[in-house]
Design goal:
alpha+beta, four-stranded mixed β-sheet, 4 strands, globular
Length: about 100
């Protein structure tokens, strides 16, 4: 009985996709920066994106994130003059073709 439990546990443990990584991108100020910095990410990676408040977060979410999974969106619009401040998105990276054309 215990042997069967261990075998099932190992099967379930190793069956998850462990290839995905965390793709962290620093402050993005425009779409040109985004196109250059996003090249390090692969589809299915966990994406942590910090961007300037001048960009529209909803457009980034629609074009970069998998909408099947949870998307965490944090906007710090009250602190404008602080360095490295801005909004951030955490999601599963699933790019649309339109953003890179």
């Amino acid at each position: 009985m215990f042997k069967n439990f261990v075998i099932c546990f190992l099967f379930v443990f190793f069956s998850f996709d462990s290839k995905s990584k965390v793709c962290e991108i620093s402050i993005i100020k425009n779409f040109k920066d985004l196109k250059e910095k996003i090249k390090i990410c692969d589809k299915g990676d966990k994406l942590y994106l910090n961007y300037d408040i001048k960009l529209i977060g909803e457009e980034l979410i629609i074009n970069l994130c998998s909408l099947k999974d949870t998307v965490i969106f944090k906007e710090e619009s009250k602190i404008i003059h602080k360095r490295k401040s801005g909004a951030s998105i955490i999601c599963i990276y699933d790019p649309s073709k339109e953003i890179f054309n």
